[in-house]
Amino acid sequence: MSETRNVVIIGSGCAGHTAALYTARANLKPLVVEGHEPGGQLSLTTLVENFPGFPEGIMGPQLVENMRKQAERFGAEYRMAHLTSVDLSKRPFLLHLGVHQVHTQTLIIASGASARWLGLPNEQKLIGHGVSSCATCDGFFFSGKEIVVIGGGDSAMEEATFLTRFASKVTLIHRRGSFRASKIMLERAQKNPKIHFLTDTVVEDVYDHTKQEVTGLKLRNVKTGEVYDFPTSALFLGIGHVPNAKIFAGQLDEDADGYLKTHNYVHTRVHGVYACGDVQDRRYRQAITAAGSGCMAAIEVEKFMEEHGS
Ligand code: NAP
């Protein structure tokens, strides 16, 4: 099966939904490919307090759901699929969504970023068995247990604070002595009596894959070199994200960490292909900036379609 579109949007987080809303209102009938993590990072978060327009805050999943409904109201079409290959060498661009082929005059890449893992020898074997990158998804399973959160940024503070709802004790382990988290989120975590901080410490491995559950960690103090075991029932990672851009390798420019390179805000090196949100933004990475760049990409698509037609 094959079809031809004015615009396809890859990703359904803040940037993708906003691009969908704007291109739908421009009557371009966008197709949104939802991807592996529908709703993006906001769907895995709790209360969002810094998205303007919600004085009491709004739950992340609710915010993205609202955005989607708003885009759908103007005719955006959402498809549960993911991009398996892409050819940007000529227009219309060719996308494969599994066995399904889509040609499109323009492409908006809003594929976001996914959780980073530590790369421990037994980490992958224990995902879903006590190793997690999503406190909101998995916190509930550790009611009354002692757990560990890794990281020193806002994600780690947010996860640690959230997990105190369930856990009897949360140990936040960070590889340095200072934190990159915002002052307000760090202070909130520091004031929480259930959160204990372990700094200058790295995780070397997680036990015990033979039991199919997390029983403890092998830790190393980077200052003293001491290596020791630390009992815990869960390991939550809050160590940032990696951009979902591998599929465009060789066709679009990337920086050293794999973020798509853009000029004039959202233009890639291929005319008619735009990138927005966390897949191209290593600096701001906020819901509101992702939404803003989704709007920019949509306006560029409108201009492109006016100039080049179908
Ligand atoms: P981040 O700011 O990049 O922080 C990642 C943390 O993980 C850093 O402390 C880093 O340590 C640590 N880390 C990275 N790789 C590691 C490794 N291999 N081993 C051990 N530690 C490692 O990422 P983020 O916390 O996800 O935040 C990303 C952006 O989203 C930020 O702009 C943040 O403000 C925003 N955010 C906002 C909210 C909110 O406002 N509600 C919530 C979450 C995130 P180093 O410090 O040593 O590099």
Notes on the protein architecture:
The protein is α/β, with parallel strands linked by helices and 310 residues long. The chain is 23% helix and 27% strand. It is built from six helices and 19 strands. The two termini are 20 Å apart.
Distance between the termini: 20 Å
The CATH topology of the largest domain corresponds to FAD/NAD(P)-binding domain
**Inertia-based shape:** elongated
**How is the main sheet built?**
7 strands, mixed
Can you tell me the CATH architecture of the largest domain?
3-Layer(bba) Sandwich
Q: What count of structural domains?
A: 2
What would the average pLDDT be, to the nearest integer?
95
Beta fraction of the residues?
Answer: 25-35%
- The rounded Rg comes to 21 Å
Low-confidence stretches: none
CATH C-level of the largest domain: Alpha Beta
User: What hetero molecules are in the model?
Assistant: NADP nicotinamide-adenine-dinucleotide phosphate
Describe the secondary-structure layout:
Blueprint: E1 2-10, H1 14-25, E2 31-33, E3 47-48, E4 58-59, H2 60-73, E5 77-79, E6 85-87, E7 93-97, E8 100-109, E9 113-115, E10 131-132, H3 135-138, E11 146-150, H4 154-163, E12 169-173, H5 183-191, E13 195-198, E14 201-207, E15 216-221, E16 227-231, E17 234-237, E18 241-243, E19 273-275, H6 287-308
Parallel strand pairs: 1-2, 1-8, 2-5, 8-19, 10-17, 11-12, 11-17, 12-13
Antiparallel strand pairs: 3-4, 6-7, 7-8, 9-18, 14-15, 15-16
Helix pairs in contact: 1-2, 1-6, 4-5
NADP nicotinamide-adenine-dinucleotide phosphate is lined by residues 50, 116, 118, 150-156, 158, 175-176, 180, 182, 238-241, 285.
